[in-house]
Design brief:
CATH architecture of chain A: Alpha-Beta Complex
Largest sheet of chain B: 10 strands, mixed
Structural class of chain A: alpha/beta
Largest interface: A-B, 44 and 29 residues
Structural class of chain B: alpha+beta
CATH class of chain A: Alpha Beta
Number of helices of chain B: 15
Radius of gyration of chain A: 21 Å
Helix content of chain A: 25-40%
Oligomer: heterodimer
Number of strands of chain B: 17
CATH topology of chain A: Amidase signature (AS) enzymes
Strand content of chain A: 5-15%
Order of helices and strands of chain A: HHEHEHEHEHEEHEHEHHHHEHHEEH
CATH superfamily of chain A: Amidase signature (AS) domain
Strand content of chain B: 15-25%
Number of domains of chain B: 3
């Protein structure tokens, strides 16, 4: 049996070609085979319990099909650890709106997937519980921070997964693992129950084996949620309706900043192939420039770290986190955090704390906010001339574990995913071919709430580039 | 050496639920940690949603003070670690408060004084630490309870004036129905800044935190003023420090020096959208505004003929003010009603609720005004009605009428004249005030059930030989 995607599994169930039990059996067979190497999951449901739960959902639209969930999204069945020692034993008393909607539509949670601690990283090496490995090559990283979700889907251990994307954490691992990853417009999917890293950037998005599955899952999880003040007042929408492989008449912008020479001849040749494909499909490639791209990375690391420094203050050893007993409450908090947080998290808390400090606020955080506004304006102006923007999702295919020990070189792997995140725009990564024999992602970026157009274009390219 | 004082006043708003979640806000006397949820506990993934009612109550205060409501205000995070602060930050308004400017006019020793308001903003309360022999416990019930903070300009010139300002503010808050504003219950809390200026040059200010009674405000400010004067007269410098106040020992406690001052790293809370108060919303709040106490006072003086001190005494408590209003409207002489409410009923009015239904007091006053009973009888009936919880109409019908019968009055008068020869002699010698004494004796004999005017007339007739 070749790995199914969600839509195929659904059809197979409807046509009674497969039983739910057989699908679960197959997922667990793959898990038992691949998981010892890949290590995508932090917690996994018991197979028989999952089958029992699934069969109780049979009558609902998604028919009891299982989904994997990144471990920074709250679930009640499993711990929610954020891959942090501080939350190793934390179990949320409530579930995320996105998870609740999936369950209401008939899905069951198969397990919780690995990530960089608190979603801070691009390789899933920053997990307190060990790294996840790329199913294409276990010497390589799956990307991150939703590396566990991407690897589980790529390996066939899961039909689909939820991830979170703050600066590229859904799209970059999707690219590195050869699956589809969608970051929705900021505010389209409720953040309620997503453990905050950088609240003004955090989004929940699906990682799937196909663009159609991304559309299907988005239809379930999108829509206004009164529990999230930043949730957009948009009604639910079925993104699978009207989903057609269609590029005809669309102008697709390729920013020169997204194809610098440093990417190397193999990548540049692949991008040229994409351009040719787009023209063949009736689209028009428009070369353009987004000169503020070079400021996106520092802007992102100031804003995201500043927000993180406050968002992570609640992990203080007082209530539900790991506690290091010490003399005096201040010392207890300091020691619990010192022991509990990993290096990268500490680095970002320190950076964010500094950026917000009296006397530096305007120079760093304030300036970054102004640049962020300019970047959003730059995109808005570009979308006057083009319908979508495209380019590589990440500068390189999957790199080796330990290869990017220098944090700055690691941060550069999010170079192309960060600008659109700062602007709150929807973007999708789809398999775009091979580089060095490894999957390489094509990213499409659209204007706010252009998910329908984005998905149709992605579907056309997915079919053409397969 | 002039004293300059500014106050920061925290007022607990009378909302049903907390500022950012739907937990009940009336935590007083609730068992610890029973009024909490993931939002006010700051659990990972929970998000705040602003309580509209809290905004409306704060707007009432802003409008009553004549402050300028900001069309767009913003919530900020104030970052600091403390065990009673579960998120590691407090949500408050710093950069753009709900309203700016305004003033409150009040009376101090018969003089009108006006204190300007700098700003007014919304924020959430923290939990409470409870120190026990077993260690420190935390009660999170108060966490997230809405507060409005009112910051004055440094317009107060004495500790006594600060106290009276606070009293006037409390009266206003109660009349606006925004808070019960009981300092003993912590519903009204005050921090004070005080400096002593020498030869018109402004001095260094010291802060006193957590003043929880009117007496504490006055005494602590007196102590701080004395402390600063003593330093200055010794030629020493006043340091910028923060004190607490030991209410029992009436002592300032040094809490922190300038070097220990926090850097709160305020920044806009990305979980909340800007608060927009448009003209329509403001008009709705204005339309629902209870009458402010100064307008009521003016109306009572104008329409009911009260004097300012009576009006002020009735206005201290809005329940009493409403009660008076109801009684005054139903009796022929509203000014007399003030005396009944303040003096006669006042002695029994110890709790929050009126000790007697307004309709009962109206019946009693009418009976007196119509001459059906005497004032002493009325007082007796009032006492019975309150203490024995009997209705006034029942007591009125049980009470005998006033002795009006000429024969009976004459017999009574003759008896009194017989028993008081000295007074009779005095009267006949021209000391007419002896008549009052004789009337009093007669009334006592009649156990109050005689009309004093008629008695005086009969006595006078007999004395002048009739």
């Amino acid at each position: 049996m070749t790995p199914l995607d969600l839509s195929e599994a659904l059809r197979a169930l409807e046509e009674k070609r497969l039983s739910l039990s057989a699908i679960v059996d197959e997922l667990f067979r793959v898990i038992s085979e691949r998981e010892p190497t890949v290590r995508a999951f932090l917690t996994l449901a018991d197979k028989e319990e999952l089958k029992a739960q699934a069969s109780a959902q049979k009558e609902k639209p998604l028919r009891g099909l299982p989904i994997a969930v990144k471990d920074n999204i709250c679930t009640v069945e499993f711990p929610t650890t954020c891959a942090s020692k501080l939350l190793e034993r934390y179990r949320s008393p409530f579930e995320a709106t996105a998870v609740a909607r999936l369950k209401a539509a008939g899905m069951v949670v198969q397990g919780k997937t690995n990530l960089d601690e608190f979603a801070m990283g691009s390789s899933t090496e920053n997990s307190a519980f060990g790294p996840t490995r790329n199913p294409w090559d276990p010497e390589r990283v799956p990307g991150g921070s939703s590396g566990g979700s991407a690897a589980a889907v790529a390996a066939g251990e899961a039909l689909a997964a939820l991830g979170s994307d703050t600066g590229g954490s859904v799209r970059q691992p999707a690219a590195l693992c050869g699956v589809v990853g969608l970051r929705p417009t900021y505010g389209l999917v409720s953040r309620y129950g997503l453990v905050a890293f950088a609240s003004s950037l955090d989004t929940i998005g699906p990682l799937t084996r196909s663009v159609r599955d991304a559309a299907l899952l988005l239809s379930v999880i999108a829509g206004h949620d009164p529990k999230d003040s930043t949730s957009l007042p948009v009604p639910p929408q079925d993104y699978t309706q009207g989903l057609r492989p269609s590029l005809a008449g669309l102008r697709l912008g390729l920013p020169v900043e997204y194809v610098p020479k440093e990417l190397g001849p193999e990548v540049l040749a692949l991008v040229e192939r994409w351009c040719a494909t787009i023209e063949e499909l009736g689209g028009q490639v428009v070369r353009l420039s987004l000169p503020l791209t070079e400021y996106a990375l520092p802007t992102y690391y100031l804003i995201a770290s500043a927000e993180a420094s406050a968002n992570l203050a609640r992990y203080d050893g007082v209530r539900y986190t790991l506690r290091v007993p010490a003399e005096g409450v201040g010392e207890m908090i300091a020691q619990s955090r010192a022991l509990g947080f990993g290096r990268e998290v500490k680095r970002r808390i320190a950076l964010g704390t500094f950026a917000l400090s009296a006397g530096y606020y305007d120079q760093y955080y304030g300036k970054a906010q102004r640049v962020r506004t300019l970047i959003a304006q730059e995109f808005a102006e570009a979308f006057q001339r083009v319908d979508l923007i495209f380019g590589p999702t990440s500068p390189t295919p999957a790199f080796r574990l330990g290869e990017k020990a220098d944090p700055l070189s690691m941060y550069l792997s999010d170079l192309f995913t960060i600008p659109s995140a700062l602007a709150g725009l929807p973007a999708i990564s789809i398999p775009g071919g091979r580089v060095d024999g490894l999957p390489f992602g094509l990213q499409l970026i659209g204007p706010r709430l252009s998910e329908a157009r984005l998905l149709s274009a992605a579907l056309a390219l997915e079919e053409a580039l397969r | 050496m002039d004293v300059v004082i500014g106050l920061e006043i925290h007022v607990q708003l009378l909302t049903r639920t907390k500022l950012f979640c739907s937990c009940r806000a009336d935590y007083f006397a609730a068992p610890p940690n029973t009024l909490t949820c993931p939002v006010c506990l700051g659990l990972p993934g929970a998000l705040p949603v602003l309580n509209k009612k809290a905004v409306e109550l704060a707007l009432r205060v802003a409008l009553a003070l004549g402050a300028e409501v900001q069309e767009v205000s913003q919530f900020d995070r104030k970052n600091y670690f403390y065990p009673d602060l579960p998120k590691g930050y407090q949500i408050t308004q710093r950069a753009v408060p709900l309203a700016r400017g305004g003033a409150l006019t009040f009376r101090l020793a018969g003089q009108e004084r006006t204190v300007r308001v700098r700003e007014l903003h919304l924020e959430e309360d923290a939990g409470k630490l409870i120190h026990t022999e077993r260690g420190t416990l935390i009660d999170f019930n108060r966490c997230g309870v809405p507060l409005v903070e009112i910051v004055t300009e440094p317009d107060l010139r004495s500790p006594q004036e600060a106290r009276e300002f606070l009293r006037a503010l409390r009266t206003l808050l109660r009349h606006l129905r925004v808070s019960t504003a009981d300092m003993e219950k912590g519903e009204l809390r005050c921090d004070a800044n005080i400096s002593v200026s020498v030869d018109g040059r402004p001095g260094t200010k010291t802060e006193i935190k957590n003043l929880n009674s009117f007496k504490a405000v006055e005494r602590a400010l007196q102590a701080a003023a004395e402390h600063q004067r003593a330093l200055l007269s010794r030629g020493e410098r006043v340091e910028q420090v923060t004190f607490g106040w030991d209410e029992g020992r009436e002592e300032l406690l040094l809490q922190r020096t300038k070097e220990e001052a926090h850097d709160y790293r305020y920044f806009p809370d990305p979980d909340l959208v800007p608060l927009v108060v448009d003209a329509m919303w403001l008009a709705q709040v204005q339309a629902a505004m209870p009458e402010p106490p100064w307008e009521r006072e003016a109306r009572w003086i104008r329409a009911f003929g009260l004097n300012p001190s009576e009006a002020e005494a009735l206005l201290v408590d809005p329940v009493r003010a409403d009660y008076f209003e109801e009684v005054a409207r139903a009796v022929p002489n509203p000014k007399a009603a003030a005396g009944w409410v303040l003096a006669e009923l006042g002695q029994y009015w110890t709790g929050d609720e009126p000790p007697l239904p307004a309709a009962d007091l109206v019946a009693l006053i009418r009976a007196v005004e119509e001459g059906r009973i005497t004032r002493p009888q009325a007082k007796e009936i009032l006492e019975k009605a309150v203490l024995e919880r009997t209705s006034v109409p029942v007591l009125l019908s049980a009470a005998g009428g006033v002795v009006r019968d000429e024969e009976a009055l004459r017999a009574l008068a003759e008896e009194v004249l017989r028993e008081n020869p000295q007074a009779v002699a005095d009267y006949r010698a021209g000391r007419t005030q002896a008549l009052g004494f004789l009337v009093g004796q007669a009334l006592r004999k009649a156990q109050g059930r005689a009309d004093p005017k008629r008695l005086a007339h009969v006595l006078q007739t007999l004395l002048s030989g009739g």
